[in-house]
Design a protein that fits this description.
A four-stranded mixed beta sheet has the order 2-1-5-6, with helices on one face. Strands 3-4 form a two-stranded antiparallel ribbon. Helix 1 packs antiparallel against helix 2. By secondary structure, it is α/β, with parallel strands linked by helices.
């Protein structure tokens, strides 16, 4: 049930689908998301619209950056999150020819009842 937002610069526009597929594969393999649960918004920013500091927390960045924000159910262990970051970084790097250091990832954890997959219906109502 993850919802993924991916933002790339124009130099990576041709690789959008490959990047999205790499993120999805990591979610399935590592975070155990269902294989048929691919909901993604992939945006190509205009030149100059993505700003990234040259170095942060000891990681250097170039201008060829990929931002990945994932909304998913709360509750995954820290070890799973760390493995997910690694899998996304290496997968996107292989798919789009970017450095893993230029893949910026943010997880946003939500409650199960925060999802509606259509029809105006709460997809996962709380169990009584």
């Amino acid at each position: 049930m993850p919802l993924v937002r991916i933002t790339v610069g124009p130099e990576l526009g041709a690789d959008k689908r490959a990047i999205g597929d790499a993120v999805h594969k990591a979610l399935v393999d590592v975070a155990k998301a269902p294989a048929d649960d691919q909901f993604q918004i992939i945006e190509e920013a205009k030149p100059g619209a993505l700003i990234v500091t040259p170095s942060y927390l000891g990681v250097s960045h170039t201008g060829k950056v990929v931002f990945v924000q994932i909304f998913l159910n709360a509750g995954r262990a820290t070890e799973v999150k760390a493995a997910l970051y690694a899998a996304i970084g290496s997968g996107v790097a292989a798919a789009a020819g970017v450095r893993a250091e230029d893949v910026i990832i943010n997880l946003v954890e939500v409650a199960r009842e925060d999802w509606s997959f259509g029809g105006g219906v709460m997809s996962y109502p709380p169990q009584k």
